Amino acid sequence: MSRAEATGPGVDDGADEGADAVRGADRGRAATGGERYGLWWTFGFFRSELLTTFRRWRTLALLAVLAAVPVLIGIAVKIETSGGGSAGEGGGPAFLTQVTNNGLFLVFAALAATLPVFLPMTVGVIAGDSVAGESAAGTLRYLLVVPAGRTRLLLAKYAAALTFCLAATLVVAVFALATGAALFPLGDVTTISGTTISFGSGLLRALLVAVLVAASLVGFAAIGLFVSTLTGSGIAAMAATVGLLITVQIVDSIPQLGAVHAYLFSHYWLSFADVMRAPVLWDDVVKNLVSQAVYALVFGSAAWARFSTKDVTA
User: Fold this and answer.
1) I want to staple 210 with a disulfide (CB 3.0 to 4.6 A). Which of 9, 126, 173, 201 is the partner?
2) For the whole model, what pTM was predicted?
3) How many whole angstroms separate alpha carbon 296 and alpha carbon 280?
4) Element (H, E) at 139
5) Using CA atoms, how far apart are residues 73 and 88, in angstroms rounded to an integer?
6) What is the pLDDT of residues 256-311, one digit of tens each?
7) Buried b (16+ CB within 10 A) or exposed e, 219-249
């Protein structure tokens, strides 16, 4: 029986992805001599899930949009300051006023601009569609034909979502650095505290900031994965995840609700700015990492509890 006959009309693209995932898992299992729970089998399954995620046109389009944001910010700052004006006079992301003096600050400005909305929205699309998209395409049941186990499948999808978090953040940082180097001078970096560090040290801090921004999305990715297990519609899961993001951001901006701000997953997202102090202030950075770990544990567990009992044949 052909793949099209097995999956029915209208889901050929999803069937291709599901079949590729099955083949990847089979290859991993074969590498361990058929052991069901071999380490290489697990890696093969994760690798297949990763390739499936990053070869989708939707994923590539999201990364392209993220890459365009720092380029547009850099061009806008260059145009604004070409006539002697000052960047950020009308407001804007943090670090924007320092970009003209040192192009490295475009990395921090771009991450500050994309973290509240653009980066988490792309993560919400990827994580929200991870399980629900497979269910909608009719490929989820075929994935579970392979002796992966639901826990292993869920872990592979979450790991792929976390990899996307890091990749998306690095795309923003790399394009920001390239744009900053092309449009503005580079050199020693003046920290928020007023001290000066070498360009190499500033570059290392930029890398650390990018990793911290990616880590800031760990909890939200777990939320998206949980939402994805609640519905069989990929579009509904993505919309619900993004809607939750917007709601939390609104709540976090209302002073009268300050009592709950510290418990929101997005409250400490911009704490990475403290890395640009001398010495580095770690208090809010650690709070952010702890918050993300708690959200990942709670909603990851909820996703597993839901998915382990989910009827995938319906």
Assistant:
1) 173
2) 0.81
3) 26
4) none
5) 11
6) 999 999 999 999 999 998 998 888 889 999 999 999 999 999 999 999 988 877 65
7) bbbbbbbbbbbbbbbbebbbbbbbebbeebe
